[in-house]
TrEMBL record:
Transmembrane segments: none annotated. This is L-asparaginase, type II. It comes from Bilophila wadsworthia (strain 3_1_6). Gene3D superfamilies: 3.40.50.40, L-asparaginase, N-terminal domain. GO terms for molecular function: asparaginase activity. Residues 238-350 form the Asparaginase/glutaminase C-terminal domain. It comes from the Bacteria.
Length: 356
């Protein structure tokens, strides 16, 4: 075993690398007559190699759980299938429906928490939307895999085991929706997928993980502050994201304004600054009653109205834009979809983005 008792790779009889999982079950007193729901949605963790088509969805929820040594010994589990799709097929509407399903499950006293298996491409978005609609002290943990079961060293089994142990831990209560990957625990609000292929892809830039999963326990080292709850009766999906680049103008903004979309999110530069040619489009959107939320292309930091030159965040704010705090473009889009279901007018919407 490696120093610190982390899972290690060893050669089995077939000379292929096999995952050894040295985890011990959580305390029985925490789980008497209670269980964790494993809710499957698909993704690489539930895929196999089809020689004719490549890696495709092929593994059921029950088969997935059965493939993880020691998982059922770690905690009583019930498997439910929500979907079996690649994560690029996940939509905000499906995320919202998933959130409703999770909240329904968590109302049952015998459920400790919920683990959701999910493809990694849109996992951070699903986690964030679920966190915004989450209204329970019980933990919800999302996990997935960067390597399928067809590859030599799939990471899905250890990720699923870590997620189940986290969902069963009393230490995870009250921390909202969590992403558990690579033995680390991240807050849905902070986590991003940072690499297209590396198993250490999920990171929380500048903040780091909330904690980690060790063989004998789930360890939390910090908490996340300023969590919000937005529970609209329905999702407003007609919200669009535009990433600005040097020389961007109002062309795409005006195109969406002419379509009478419900909202726009712009990924701007630095503190929320835009090219001067994009400013007229922002004004036209606001004049038409379309909210425009400004976020930053940078991986961390707040947008703030400190620059007053043409296109600076101060002039964007004066044009009626809404500064999006620390929220990334994709996550701000989801927040605006939810907020439009409960708020009307720029000032009411701005309140939801005022949290750093």
């Amino acid at each position: 075993m490696e120093e610190g008792g982390r899972p290690f790779l060893q050669k089995g009889p077939s000379s292929l690398l096999q995952v050894s999982l040295p985890f011990s079950p959580s305390k029985k007193s925490d789980m008497d007559n209670k269980k964790v729901i494993v809710l499957t949605t698909g993704g690489t963790i539930a895929m196999k190699l089809d020689p004719a088509h490549g890696i495709v969805p092929a593994v059921s929820g029950e088969d997935l759980v059965a493939s993880v040594p020691g998982l059922r010994e770690a905690c009583p589990i019930e498997v439910m299938e929500f979907s079996n799709i690649p994560s690029p097929h996940m939509t905000p509407k499906r995320m919202f429906e998933l959130g409703n399903k999770v909240e329904e499950l968590l109302r049952h006293e015998d459920i400790l928490g919920v683990v959701i298996t999910h493809g990694t491409d849109t996992l951070e978005e699903t986690a964030y939307l679920l966190d915004l609609v989450h209204n329970s002290e019980k933990p919800v943990c999302l996990t997935g895999a960067m390597r399928s079961a067809a590859e030599i060293s799939p990471d899905g089994p250890v990720n699923l085991l870590c997620a189940v142990r986290t969902a069963a831990s009393s230490e995870a209560r009250g921390k909202g929706v969590l992403v558990v990957m690579n033995e680390e625990i991240h807050a849905a609000r902070e986590v991003v997928k940072s690499h297209s292929a590396n198993t250490e892809t999920f990171v929380s830039p500048f903040w780091g993980p909330l904690g980690y999963v060790d063989p004998d326990r789930v360890v939390f080292r910090r908490n996340t502050l300023g969590r919000q709850s937005i529970r609209p009766p329905e999702l407003v999906e007609d919200v669009h994201l535009i990433k600005l680049a040097s020389g961007s103008d109002s062309l795409l903004i005006d195109f969406l304004v002419e379509r009478n979309v419900r909202g726009l999110v712009l990924e701007a530069f630095g503190r929320g600054n835009v090219p001067p040619a994009a400013l007229p489009g922002i004004r036209r959107a606001v004049e038409k009653g379309i909210p425009v939320v400004i976020t930053t292309r940078t991986i961390a930091g707040r947008v703030l109205d400190v620059y007053g030159y043409e296109g600076g965040a101060k002039t964007v704010l004066e044009a009626g834009g809404i500064l999006g705090g620390e929220t990334s473009g994709p996550k701000a889009r989801l927040k605006l979809m939810l907020a439009l279901g409960v708020a009307s007018g720029r000032d009411e919407l701005a309140v939801f983005f005022d949290t750093p």
